[in-house]
Design brief:
By secondary structure, the chain is mainly alpha-helical. The chain is built from 28 helices and four strands. InterPro entries: Ankyrin_rpt, Ankyrin_rpt-contain_sf.
């Protein structure tokens, strides 16, 4: 064959004519399938790559699957000219199965020949090309079958006239490709490798770029394994939560930024260090509580670390969420607060925080699959974890006892009892809160965040007729039946 015109004539003559043409050329030249032919000035291609370029899907377009399959059956080489890289770059996914069969065919002869870590002319690995496609099935076939792939091998990228080497996990974060992140982590991708001018780990990169789905999968896939450093900093000493606060401050998708902040706090990240960011969270604290609630309901993830940080009087998050400034105190104890309630606007963040733990007799940690997470494997894992958490609520667990309180992902009985008390107190007070009540002040200021503190207050003789004493007696089973209807009864405060 002198040029691709001869090949085009064979294609036009039909599959049998094409097959005969290829056989004849191979008989005449054993290196035929390895040779490169001029396709245009300064551009040479093998027959296989020429057909990959020629293939088009859709009615009336040239379909080359059968022709490519014939070449592969004849032993056409595809590693040296990176044919699989090419079809992925061209987004011709229907050809991918010719080289990479389904999981039932992973032992096929063609797979044994694939050089998975080969790089194309642009310095990109096969895995890098697969990540660029953002196609779940492509990345799944590559990473779920234990192929010999180096999941940490960097690829070369041209960034603003400069070349940079980027690892697959960082690339998946930039592309916001959750499936790739999950399967890379499952295959041993390194979590703390720095990348770029800012020396960013994947979690820092996801926070700076606002890739919230990527952040969610990074947190979920590593939960309980202690591999992900939530306090890692870049070379400008910014942590993930600081970077998300910057996005919130600059109003770059502020709701997504709050969602990311909520996720980090739920997994135990510390509050921002800068006062301007803490003030920013104070202004957005109701929206933040709402994002924590959404995250809990969508994913079944425990919010215990967030609630405990709010309860801890030595934790900066305590002052952020209870907002104990003179302005907030003046408003909180103003008799005009009923106007705020009248329009259905949120108030009394202390009660909202405790609703995350207990929101009525039927409340329980949710057992739901999330739409936010696109991976069935993560959804199944989380559903299982949530079910286990629910079963552990009122049972002793030797393994759980061995953990410190901060490490436990389910609430203790005392924590749930305190939240139940707050829920009962709120409903007993009804629509109009009593800002003159000592217990109300203690709760809303965050001065009382523990059931033992409530008991200590209620047991004082001067508080014998208070709402607090009545509710505690009811919870401990020491109250006559006349007090069963606590929700509709008005009492002394």
């Amino acid at each position: 064959m002198k040029s691709f015109r001869e090949l085009e004539k064979a294609i036009a003559a039909g599959e049998e004519a094409f097959n005969a043409f290829i056989l004849k050329e191979i008989e005449n030249d054993e290196q035929f399938l390895r040779r490169r032919f001029l396709v245009r000035k300064n551009k040479q291609l093998t027959v296989l790559n020429y057909l990959i370029y020629k293939h088009q899907k859709g009615l009336g377009n040239p379909h080359m699957q059968k022709h490519i399959k014939m070449l592969l059956d004849f032993g056409a080489p595809f590693n040296s000219d990176c044919s699989i890289h090419l079809l992925l770059r061209l987004q011709k996914f229907e050809l991918f199965s010719l080289f990479m069969p389904s999981s039932e065919e992973v032992a096929s002869e063609i797979i044994q020949k694939i050089n998975f870590d080969n790089t194309d002319i642009e310095g990109r690995t096969l895995l890098s090309r697969a990540i660029d496609t953002k196609h779940p099935d492509v990345i799944r076939r590559l990473l779920k079958n234990n192929f010999p792939i180096d999941v940490n091998k960097p690829s070369r990228f041209d960034i603003e006239t400069q070349f940079a080497e980027i690892q697959p996990l960082h690339q998946a974060v930039v592309n916001d490709f959750p499936h790739a992140i999950y399967y890379l982590l499952e295959n041993g991708a390194i979590l703390d490798s720095p990348c770029g001018e800012l020396d960013e780990t994947p979690i820092l990169l996801s926070a700076r770029l606002g890739k919230i789905k990527s952040l969610e999968v990074l947190l979920a896939a590593t939960a309980g394994k202690n591999h992900l450093d939530l306090e890692a900093t870049n070379n400008q000493f910014d942590r993930p939560i600081d970077l998300l606060c910057k996005r919130l401050e600059e109003k770059k998708n502020p709701q997504e930024a709050l969602c990311g902040i909520a996720m980090l706090l739920c997994h135990g990240a510390k509050a921002p260090r800068e006062e301007k960011f803490r003030d920013l969270l104070i202004k957005n604290r109701f929206a933040l509580i709402d994002e924590v609630k959404k995250y809990k309901n969508k994913t079944g993830n425990s919010v215990a670390k967030f609630v405990r940080a709010c309860h801890d009087k030595n934790n900066p998050l305590h002052d952020i969420m209870y907002a104990n400034t003179w302005f907030h105190a003046l408003w909180r104890y103003s008799c005009l607060q009923w106007i705020w309630h009248l329009f259905g606007l949120p108030c009394d963040e202390a009660f909202l925080i405790e609703k995350l733990v207990y929101d009525g007799p039927d409340s329980i940690e949710p057992i739901v699959a999330t739409e936010f997470t696109p991976l069935d494997s993560i959804e199944i894992t989380r559903t299982t974890q949530s079910r286990e958490n629910s079963c552990l609520l009122y049972q002793s667990n030797e393994c759980a006892e061995a953990l410190s309180l901060e490490e436990r992902t389910h609430f203790t009985q005392d924590e749930r009892k305190f939240s139940e008390f707050v829920w009962r107190y709120s409903h007993t007070c009804g629509f109009f809160k009593a800002p003159w009540s000592t217990m109300y002040r203690k709760l809303t200021l965050g001065a009382c965040t523990d059931i033992e503190e409530v008991r200590e207050y209620s047991e004082k003789q001067v508080n014998a007729t208070t709402t607090t004493r009545t509710i505690i007696n009811a919870m401990d089973g020491r109250t006559p039946s006349v007090h069963d209807d606590l929700l509709g009864t008005r009492m002394h405060y």
